[in-house]
Amino acid sequence: MAGRRDALLNREKGQSLFGSRIVGAVAIGVLLGCVLAFLSPHGLFSSSNSQTIHNLRNRISNQMVSSECESVEQVNALKSDVQSAKEKSYELKKEVRSLMEKLRQAEQGKGHAQEQVVALGDKHKVGPFGTVKGLRTNPTVIPDESINPRLAKILEEVAIYKEIIVVLANSNVKEMLEVWFTNIKRVGIPNHLVVALDDTIEEFCKSNDVPVYRRDPDEGVDTIAKTGSNHAVSGLKFRVLREFLQLGYSVLLSDVDIVYLQNPFDHIYRDSDVESMSDGHNNHTAYGFNDVFDEPKMGWARYAHTMRIWVYNSGFFYIRPTLPSIELLDRVASRLSSDPKSWDQAVFNEELFFPSHPGYDGLHAAKRTMDMYLFMNSKVLFKTVRKDDKLKKLKPVIVHLNYHPDKFARMKAVVDFYVYGKQDALDRFPDGSE
Ligand SMILES: *[C@@H]1O[C@H](CO)[C@@H](O)[C@H](O)[C@H]1NC(C)=O
């Protein structure tokens, strides 16, 4: 890449060198002309000589005109050369990026696989103190293309290393979707896919060169898709997601009210079934804490310790194609359909976190909370980050406008702030909704 860049630089340098030669030639011509004009009327030269000089002058100026024409053409040719070299370099950069991503993931995968072998292999004695690790990276399922060959084909083209960002969208969120994919493209994340829930969105994606998948008509589910509120669509996504996992893909499920500022795949650990952004707003609430409950009447035992963690955000999580992951999707989808009033995010968290107990088998899924400053919710941004000189300088991977109803306006402000560097872009908004 460096060599290529040097070549480009040299070419540009060559171009300016060429330009300065023309300027030099013109200057010499003009100077010569002046000298001759000064000398010719009376001085040293006879009339025949002045004829020669006239011819000479003509020749020089003719030459200058023709060399100017040639140079315009040459400059244009060079310009288009430079342009195509730039395009090529962009393509190569993209390729290098995707190869690096594959390499890094292969290495990460090798590490996880070794841990799996240790944990799942023959029974073995326990190693020394502090060296023992339980299984958290579950093995992936065998892909089954027969369940949806059309989607399988799309994913084969769009996904990178069996990973893809997926968003569900209907016409209600068209303008936010535009901000969504514009920023994804700006960052240069090729592996994203819109699941279009109506014709308008399908057309909109096609005309904007955004990878799109339209599901086959599916009774019941599709009336939700067309007319549904945000919450109803959220329920649908668990059913849609299942197919992606069955096909063997890891999905980064994304809501539409999210601004991408870096490539999230560079910041995923891939060691758990579910890796999710948090609704928490500081270390305690995002990562879990011991919340002491006080009941003074109990005297000596007045303090009861409780475990608390702010919920995972079911609008942005990375899910690997494993049995616990698919079990999670099934459990959430079936609870949502049996109780239409339930909220998908609450159900998602209850299924993830409640342990087995009498009469109930809990889900045994491995989970990881994403970094709250890299995968930032809008409460963290508007309540804390924008007022803190140090935190303000951090560049998040994504910002999710989950905490605010004026999503579109705040999304654009986030772009102004982080992409265009407008330092006051976030100032006009209140912390919460007023
Ligand atoms: C939150 O946790 C991080 C990482 O563990 C630490 O560096 C930081 O100081 C903590 N912040 C606060 C306010 O405790």
From TrEMBL:
<keyword id="KW-0175">Coiled coil</keyword>
<keyword id="KW-0472">Membrane</keyword>
<keyword id="KW-0808">Transferase</keyword>
<dbReference type="InterPro" id="IPR029044">
    <property type="entry name" value="Nucleotide-diphossugar_trans"/>
</dbReference>
<keyword id="KW-0735">Signal-anchor</keyword>
<dbReference type="GO" id="GO:0016757">
    <property type="term" value="F:glycosyltransferase activity"/>
</dbReference>
<comment type="similarity">
    <text>Belongs to the glycosyltransferase 77 family.</text>
</comment>
<dbReference type="InterPro" id="IPR044290">
    <property type="entry name" value="RRA1/2/3"/>
</dbReference>
<keyword id="KW-0812">Transmembrane</keyword>
<keyword id="KW-0961">Cell wall biogenesis/degradation</keyword>
<keyword id="KW-0328">Glycosyltransferase</keyword>
<feature type="coiled-coil region">
    <location>
        <begin position="75"/>
        <end position="116"/>
    </location>
</feature>
<dbReference type="Pfam" id="PF03407">
    <property type="entry name" value="Nucleotid_trans"/>
</dbReference>
<keyword id="KW-1133">Transmembrane helix</keyword>
<keyword id="KW-0333">Golgi apparatus</keyword>
<dbReference type="InterPro" id="IPR005069">
    <property type="entry name" value="Nucl-diP-sugar_transferase"/>
</dbReference>
<dbReference type="GO" id="GO:0071555">
    <property type="term" value="P:cell wall organization"/>
</dbReference>
<dbReference type="GO" id="GO:0080147">
    <property type="term" value="P:root hair cell development"/>
</dbReference>
<dbReference type="GO" id="GO:0000139">
    <property type="term" value="C:Golgi membrane"/>
</dbReference>
<feature type="transmembrane region" description="Helical">
    <location>
        <begin position="21"/>
        <end position="39"/>
    </location>
</feature>
<protein>
    <recommendedName>
        <fullName>Glycosyltransferase</fullName>
        <ecNumber>2.4.2.-</ecNumber>
    </recommendedName>
</protein>
<feature type="domain" description="Nucleotide-diphospho-sugar transferase">
    <location>
        <begin position="189"/>
        <end position="408"/>
    </location>
</feature>
